[in-house]
Structures are given as structure tokens and as C-alpha cells.
């Protein structure tokens, strides 16, 4: 998610305040956007100590919403390491159980509009109205996690991909709501408020 779009989209969501730099206060909800490389992003979070802030926020009952790469960073490990790295996997935030693996398709990244299937609604807000609606995806990796976490799925090139995950106060969204027009912004607004 590019920063301009993230800020513009979030400014249209009720009750969202945009902060820059390390927060010196607590917030009810944090949004972790992201586009780019997993290893670069997790290293930046470590370097700025935002990883500790995010983990403490969740441990103290605050809501966390990860979008695209932000969703993937929530998990324990990822195969997305820098070229030439001696690692085969890199640690994520470890807030959710699971790992990030490369999509099997020969056509990567997966870019485009896909419909989502709401598997179950374990959120306090009603998401069934978004069943079979189309949202904009841009990614080459997906999450492998327990079915219990999966709220919605999509399919790309015969491969099932978790589109929305949730565990307690942590929600991950693989697609880009800020690029998904009216439905994307409405869904993001509901998820932030519920």
C-alpha cells in the first residue's frame, strides 16, 4: 500500500488519526499497511522498535489491522528473504500462528480483481454483504495458517488464498481496500469500527 493512498484512505475512515513517527501515546486501533519486501519491512520495524510497540499494543488489548504486507508481517515466518541471503525463512512479528509462502502460479505477482468468499464471520461487524464482491490484490506470497483464523478466501490460478484473517483483536486483510473502490473503503471502515 503506498503511503499516500494509505493516508488518504484512512482519513476517510471514521475515528482514524494519522500519526507519523514513533507514537508516544496509546491508540484503540493501529493499522499496519505495507507494500514491498517482507525482510526489509520487518528489519525497519525492528530498527525503529515499532515491532515492540505493536506487540505491546496487541498484548494490552488494542486492535491491530494488517493490510497486504502488513497482514503477512503479523505471522511467525516468511519465505520472502532477500536475494543472496543465507536465510531460507525470516521471522515475522509472531502475533499470529502461521507462515508466509510464495504463490505457486507461474504468473507473479498476482495483480487484479478477485472476488472473496466469506467463510465465517468471527468479527463483531457483519461482513456477509461482501461475499462474492471483488477486491484488488497485488502480491506474490500468501499466508498458510489454521482454518480457524480464516474469515474470507479468494482463489488465484487454482490456489486458495486467505483474504481476511482474524484472531481476537488482530485482523489481516491481504487485498488493498484503499484500491478497491467503494466496497474496499466500506469494508475497511466497518473493520476499524467493529
Automatic annotation (TrEMBL):
Listed GO biological process terms: L-histidine biosynthetic process
Annotated catalytic residues: 68, 176, 178
Domain of life from the UniProt record: Bacteria
Keyword Hydrolase: yes
Pathway entry: Amino-acid biosynthesis; L-histidine biosynthesis; L-histidine from 5-phospho-alpha-D-ribose 1-diphosphate: step 5/9
Molecular function GO terms recorded: glutaminase activity; imidazoleglycerol-phosphate synthase activity; lyase activity
Ranges for domain Glutamine amidotransferase: 24-184
Entry keywords, A to Z: Amino-acid biosynthesis, Glutamine amidotransferase, Histidine biosynthesis, Hydrolase, Lyase
Self-association state and partner proteins as the record states: Heterodimer of HisH and HisF.
Protein name: Glutamine amidotransferase domain-containing protein
Source organism: Fervidobacterium thailandense
Amino acid at each position: 500500500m503506498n503511503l499516500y493512498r494509505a493516508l488518504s484512505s484512512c482519513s476517510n475512515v471514521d475515528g482514524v488519526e494519522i500519526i507519523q513517527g514513533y507514537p508516544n501515546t496509546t491508540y484503540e486501533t493501529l493499522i499496519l499497511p505495507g507494500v514491498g519486501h517482507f525482510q526489509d519491512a520487518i528489519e525497519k520495524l525492528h530498527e525503529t522498535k515499532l515491532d515492540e510497540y505493536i506487540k505491546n499494543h496487541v498484548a494490552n488489548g488494542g486492535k491491530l489491522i494488517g493490510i497486504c504486507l502488513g497482514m503477512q508481517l503479523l505471522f511467525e515466518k516468511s519465505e520472502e528473504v532477500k536475494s543472496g541471503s543465507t536465510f531460507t525463512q525470516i521471522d515475522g512479528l509472531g502475533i499470529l500462528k502461521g507462515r508466509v509462502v510464495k504463490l505457486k502460479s507461474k504468473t507473479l505477482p498476482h495483480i487484479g480483481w478477485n472476488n472473496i468468499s466469506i467463510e465465517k464471520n468471527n468479527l463483531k461487524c457483519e461482513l456477509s454483504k461482501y461475499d462474492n464482491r471483488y477486491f484488488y490484490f497485488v502480491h506474490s506470497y500468501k499466508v498458510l495458517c489454521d482454518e480457524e483464523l480464516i474469515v474470507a478466501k479468494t482463489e488465484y490460478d487454482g490456489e486458495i488464498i486467505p483474504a481476511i484473517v482474524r484472531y481476537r483483536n488482530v485482523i489481516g486483510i491481504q487485498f488493498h481496500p484503499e484500491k478497491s473502490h467503494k466496497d474496499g473503503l466500506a469494508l475497511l471502515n466497518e473493520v476499524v469500527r467493529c
